[in-house]
């Protein structure tokens, strides 16, 4: 365990080697921090490197200027981790916070360690590698390369998770209803999908309809902005505001809003996941993979992510019990169409609906015939704008639902199966899609059409339109503190 020992030192002693203090760790350099006219020292034990020896100075970062830990007048210029020793002009000392030579009475001597300490902490808090002995269902799932199924694939039903991102509105609602047409289906073979709602231009009445038809309502964001570098409070505000909006204007029960996907599929480092924990979510689906065969299985974030991240802002810390449903990149053997986490990002120009069907089927079989990792079929409205793609997807869905061990479920229904205490006791064909919940009832047939003032991010005043069974609010719903006036 990394412990920071700070020792106040007399300035004279500061230049003497040998007041090394003992803490537990191996790799930590000896740093001496002189505060005002006293020195605060923290040091390590175990190695016998003399920190005052120029040859043993290690650049804490590849480039930049850094204090000499032993001599306040000296500093090092690091260039690709190669240090060059420099002396401040006479009567000046190196101030490591200001990064300049300054008058002795103003200088803060010694290395200022703020960032490096943070980095050390990050490293220590990094999630460990998967330990299959400790990681057991129903609370934990991991495997060395992420692609081990939790049981014999022969007994795993093949789940398809249809996932649709973006605002639901008149541009796309009919496509969705037509694809998810359950008119002639037996209850236990219903098609269920998961919608990641974005607030802007969303029709909340249509969301309520999808919800009452048994689909899962999950979150993208209110603003639709790239939140990759946002802090925990920004992430929390986006998710909690959107959840409140959906509860209020789509009549969705807050207990049913359990998962999220980062806008633009850009995970937000550890901050996003911290926000998910603090807001009580149970799953995330923001992490995408490169082209993998076999595909990875969903996992909990107790352990280090077992695959390369397509977008490099994956979480690195441990978030025990939080489920990740990664987007395996879609691809086929000869790479026609390319590789894409959202199928609408692959390229199918000049292809017929049968070609598109064949492509989806080949991509799907990589799951079906190997480890039976759930097949996440993620897409945006764009997909449907090309007729051959729309039709090809219909063909794929029609084909898949004729397979007696293939089921279209929501993300949460999949997790309920995976974490069931009787997991593995049924056969791969005995699964039944959970029935519709009778308490989910459409709260009106004729929604209110609301014309609402909205201030754009550039300050321009505009009008937005929204439909909901509820009373119209006074302003367009947005991040917290707005849209609450009704
Ligand atoms: C669903 O399918 C039925 C026939 O099976 C059809 O009559 C109906 O119009 C379809 N609904 C939609 C929304 O496509
Ligand atoms: C988070 O970021 C926002 C926007 O950049 C900023 O206004 C806010 O002060 C930050 N909050 C914290 C706790 O750092």
UniProtKB/TrEMBL annotation:
Q: Which domain of life is it from?
A: Eukaryota
- The answer to keyword Transcription regulation applying to this record is no
SUPFAM superfamilies with a match to the protein in the record? Glycoside hydrolase/deacetylase, Invertebrate chitin-binding proteins
Keywords recorded for this protein, A-Z? Signal
Q: Please give the InterPro entries that the UniProt record associates with this protein.
A: CE4, Chitin-bd_dom, Chitin-bd_dom_sf, Glyco_hydro/deAcase_b/a-brl
Signal peptide per UniProt: 1-43
Q: Does the keyword Zinc apply?
A: no
GO CC, alphabetical = extracellular region
Provide one Gene Ontology biological process annotation: carbohydrate metabolic process
Give all residue intervals belonging to the Chitin-binding type-2 domain. Answer: 56-111
Q: Which GO terms describe its molecular function?
A: chitin binding
Put simply, this protein is called Chitin-binding type-2 domain-containing protein
Q: Which organism encodes this protein?
A: Tigriopus californicus (Marine copepod)
């Amino acid at each position: 365990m990394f412990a920071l020992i700070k020792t106040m030192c007399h300035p004279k002693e500061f230049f003497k080697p040998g007041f090394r203090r003992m803490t537990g760790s191996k790799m930590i350099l000896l740093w001496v921090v002189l505060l005002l006219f006293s020195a605060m020292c923290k040091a390590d034990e175990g190695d016998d490197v003399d920190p005052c020896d120029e040859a043993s100075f290690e650049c804490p970062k590849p480039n930049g200027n850094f204090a000499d830990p032993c001599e306040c007048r000296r500093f090092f210029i690091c260039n690709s981790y190669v240090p060059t020793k420099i002396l401040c002009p006479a009567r000046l000392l190196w101030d490591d916070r200001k990064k300049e030579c300054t008058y002795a009475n103003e200088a803060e001597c010694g290395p200022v360690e703020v960032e490096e300490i943070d980095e050390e902490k990050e490293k220590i808090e990094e999630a460990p590698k998967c330990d299959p002995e400790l990681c057991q269902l129903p609370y934990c799932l991991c495997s060395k390369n992420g692609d081990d199924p939790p049981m014999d694939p022969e007994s795993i039903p093949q789940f398809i998770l249809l996932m649709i991102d973006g605002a639901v509105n008149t541009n796309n609602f009919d496509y969705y209803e037509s694809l998810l047409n359950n008119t002639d289906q037996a209850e236990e073979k219903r098609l269920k999908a998961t919608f990641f709602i974005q607030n802007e231009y969303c029709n909340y009445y249509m969301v309520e309809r999808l919800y009452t038809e048994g689909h899962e309502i999950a979150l993208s964001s209110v603003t639709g902005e790239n939140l990759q570098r946002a802090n925990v409070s920004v992430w929390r505000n986006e998710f909690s505001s959107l959840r409140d909006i959906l509860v209020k204007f789509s009549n969705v029960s807050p207990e049913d809003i359990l998962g999220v996907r980062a806008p633009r599929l850009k995970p937000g480092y550890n901050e996003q996941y911290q926000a998910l924990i603090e807001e009580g979510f149970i799953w995330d689906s923001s992490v995408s993979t490169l082209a993998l065969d076999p595909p990875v299985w969903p996992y909990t974030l107790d352990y280090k992510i077992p695959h390369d991240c397509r977008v490099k802002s994956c979480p690195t810390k441990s978030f025990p019990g939080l489920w990740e449903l990664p987007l395996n990149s879609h691809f086929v053997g000869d790479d026609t169409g390319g590789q894409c986490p959202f199928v609408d990002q692959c390229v199918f120009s000049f292809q017929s609906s049968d070609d598109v069907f064949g492509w989806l089927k080949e991509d799907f079989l990589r799951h079906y015939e190997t480890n039976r990792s759930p097949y996440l079929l993620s897409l945006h409205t764009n997909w449907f704008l090309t007729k051959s793609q729309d039709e090809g997807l219909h063909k794929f869905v029609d084909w898949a639902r004729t397979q007696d061990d293939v089921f279209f479920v929501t993300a949460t229904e999949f997790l309920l199966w995976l974490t069931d205490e009787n997991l593995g006791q049924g056969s791969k064909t005995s699964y039944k899609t959970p029935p519709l919940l009778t308490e989910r009832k459409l709260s009106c047939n004729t929604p209110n059409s609301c014309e609402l003032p909205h201030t754009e991010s550039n300050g321009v005043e505009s009008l937005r339109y929204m439909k909901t069974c509820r009373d119209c609010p006074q302003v367009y719903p947005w991040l917290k503190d707005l849209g609450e006036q009704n």
